[in-house]
Sequence to fold (394 residues):
Amino acid sequence: MLREEQTVRGFVQKDHNYQFATVSQGRAWVEINLSALAHNVRQLKQFLSSQTELMAVVKADAYGHGAISVAETALHHGADSLAIATLPEGIELRQAGITAPILILGAINTPEEIRAAAAWQLEVTLCTPQQALLFSDTISVIGQNLPVHIKLDTGMSRLGTDWQQATQFVRLVRQLPYLSIASIYSHLATADDPDPTVMRLQHLRFCGAIAELKAHGIVPPRLHLANSAATLRDSALHYDLVRVGLALYGLYPAPHLRCAIDLKPVLQVKARVTQVKTIAAGSGVSYGYQFIASQDLPIAIVGIGYADGVPRNLSNRLRVLVRGQLVPQIGAITMDQLMLDASNLPDLQVGEIVTLIGRDGDFSISADDWATALDTISWEILCGFKHRLPRINI
Ligand SMILES: *Cc1c(COP(=O)(O)O)cnc(C)c1O
Fold:
């Protein structure tokens, strides 16, 4: 215990509100293994041809892993550029002193946002002719060049101009002063689906749009199409850069893509036992008495709950790791605490560590396990851990 206590205390981030959290004080925390992240980045770089750049997608606070430390680590180990979803996410990275190219994947629709993007040297996504006019009008007042990344909708039905209007759109943008086309890109809706039909159709449409540009004498700028799934799946989708999110964090977008490269999970979620007691046979546990002890039962109270991002829907289904063993959680998960059946944990002590996501001994529990149990995707699980949990980089 003592050795671990010192180790973790040494790595508590100084800039975090929980800067005094130590293992003995902290009730629950998220551990971010930046060496695993570095490993994943290197694996991805090795997997890509030297023609293809790696854009690390660090939106939503790097999928809950901490945008600044993830961005710095990814860039240090070979990522070429960064992508985020919103303007404030980009500004946060610039304020931290990051100078790499940063693309805002989301839509920018006001002059204020364009001015801020330009001031912070953030590259913007351009989706419509109206936006193109607004961008150009706004930026010409400043007299600064604005790199824009043209987004085509090839079948996601989210942001972007319809792929059939690509040539018309690119021609308009080329005529507008102060806009320089940095890339043309699109996004795939089903790259993780074992059935490749829709992905192939989107790819064909993207190719078609580019071929039409060429036929009109327009030399295409840089092109990109692939998210993690498409990157792991097919090098024909790599183009000039790949936009990788999930795989950076060590998770596979789908089971059938596991063989492509070796990824290590970066995030672990841990908490502490805060009380141990034995309840009498017939006692109910937690709100609503969803669990009734059928015999006298040793239980452990753990200091983590749904306000930290442990979904209440996992109540009575969650299993955690204590002393390298799988332990069932019992009763409703509450806002700040949850209970365990401690029958197989003799002499359990307050302060012992409970792993909710991560490895302990021979067992590990992944965000995929939670996603399967909740009928959702690992992306949502990772983004679900709240800032109330101090983040410790190890
Ligand atoms: C989030 C996002 C990505 C990254 O997706 P992953 O599946 O996490 O790799 C790539 N491109 C766009 C446009 C995105 O919004």
Remarks:
- The chain has twelve helices and 20 strands.
- Residues 167 and 215 are 10 Å apart (CA to CA).
- Residues 57, 59, 105, 187, 227-229, 243-246, 253 surround pyridoxal-5'-phosphate (CB under 6 Å).
